[in-house]
């Protein structure tokens, strides 16, 4: 069988829908704007989720996918951090990745590999096949700047970051308290989207809530007893991965309570939906600070003396977003960001141009390969 000549790239998302979704959007743009073909190669430690399969099955025919055989993680302690689990899932899948590359190289014009931040172990395998390796990093500039600055910061600070009395000044970013830095760098220093949508007709009064919940067992097990029954006539509970982008684009969505995952944040900006931020772990506190104090597109409930967010505080901040002057200012600012996002993604926008620059590199490599 003759090898296809269309420029082809492999995409390796690390485990988790939150890592798959932005790479899916990246692949769609390469296909639609530059006529590429792409194959998702997905490491696993078990059976693919329904959300993964439905997302991949919905893609155009020029985007293929393959799930690698599941790897064994039974040797890991039960309290292993999620970052460890993700990284080991990728690294232990490298032999299977090598086999997938052999198949793709034989039948496609494969020229490059795109991974997310947890997939860089795959670069050695990519180099074996002469593929150009790229990291897709769609998180915040603040997180990127911290990553580049971290080694220098570590040399300057003798205590744990959470114990610092002075704020950390990340280059080019708003100052942040050490305790707000990502969990992954707190101890030893360098060592699924869920949310609530506040619906309102004509952007006025909040009258319903929408929850997206995913659990391996009972998806509603964490809810207070009787909650489902009490809210059945004015709320909707979805026990699986919800079509979040579609909900955010609906005209009745007046606000979004989120844990500050960056996919959710960007989807909110593109649709002009103001935020209530409730960070829980990882780098979410850093993002919450940036969204409230720097970008000023979000409100944040204040914890009590025990560090807990109580329902009265949530009700207060929801009302403030929907009716108060502070909420009005946040909505105005979010509208400005929505317009800016539309320009960036437009035909002559910086994002479109940046993608074209990368695509041209892939195309150039494909032409060189065809001449050899």
UniProtKB/TrEMBL annotation:
<dbReference type="Pfam" id="PF00201">
    <property type="entry name" value="UDPGT"/>
</dbReference>
<keyword id="KW-0808">Transferase</keyword>
<dbReference type="GO" id="GO:0008194">
    <property type="term" value="F:UDP-glycosyltransferase activity"/>
</dbReference>
<dbReference type="InterPro" id="IPR002213">
    <property type="entry name" value="UDP_glucos_trans"/>
</dbReference>
<keyword id="KW-0328">Glycosyltransferase</keyword>
<protein>
    <submittedName>
        <fullName>UDP-glycosyltransferase 72B1</fullName>
    </submittedName>
</protein>
């Amino acid at each position: 069988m003759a090898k296809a000549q269309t420029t082809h790239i492999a995409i390796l998302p690390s485990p988790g829908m939150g890592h798959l979704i932005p790479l899916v959007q990246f692949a769609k743009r390469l296909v639609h704007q530059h006529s590429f073909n792409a194959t998702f190669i997905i490491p696993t430690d078990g059976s693919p989720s329904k959300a993964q399969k439905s997302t991949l099955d919905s893609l155009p025919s020029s985007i293929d996918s393959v799930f690698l055989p599941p790897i064994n993680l039974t040797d890991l302690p039960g309290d292993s951090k999620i970052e460890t689990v993700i990284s080991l899932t990728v690294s232990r899948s490298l032999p299977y990745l090598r086999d997938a590359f052999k198949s793709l190289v034989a039948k496609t014009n494969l020229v490059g590999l795109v991974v997310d931040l947890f997939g860089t172990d795959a670069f050695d395998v990519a180099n074996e096949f002469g593929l150009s390796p790229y990291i897709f990093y769609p998180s915040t500039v603040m997180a990127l700047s911290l990553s580049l600055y971290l080694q220098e910061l570590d040399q300057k600070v003798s205590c744990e970051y959470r114990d610092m009395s002075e704020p950390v000044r990340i280059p080019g970013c708003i100052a942040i308290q050490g305790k707000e830095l990502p969990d992954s760098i707190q101890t030893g220093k360098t060592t699924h989207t869920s949310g609530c949508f506040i619906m309102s007709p004509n952007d006025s009064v909040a009258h319903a809530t929408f929850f997206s919940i995913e659990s391996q067992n009972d998806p509603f097990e964490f809810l207070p007893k009787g909650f489902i029954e009490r809210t059945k006539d004015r709320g909707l509970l979805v026990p699986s991965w919800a079509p979040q982008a579609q909900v955010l684009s609906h005209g009745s969505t007046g606000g979004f309570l989120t844990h500050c995952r960056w996919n959710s944040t960007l989807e909110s900006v593109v649709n002009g939906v103001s935020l209530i931020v409730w960070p829980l772990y990882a780098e979410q506190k850093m993002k919450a600070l940036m969204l409230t104090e720097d970008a000023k597109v979000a409100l944040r409930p204040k914890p009590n003396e025990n560090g807990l967010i109580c329902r009265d505080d949530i009700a207060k901040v929801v009302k403030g977003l929907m009716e108060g002057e502070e909420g009005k200012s946040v909505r105005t600012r979010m509208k400005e960001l929505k317009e800016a996002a539309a320009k960036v993604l437009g035909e002559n926008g910086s994002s479109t141009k940046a993608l074209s620059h990368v695509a041209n590199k892939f195309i150039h490599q494909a032409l060189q390969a065809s001449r050899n």
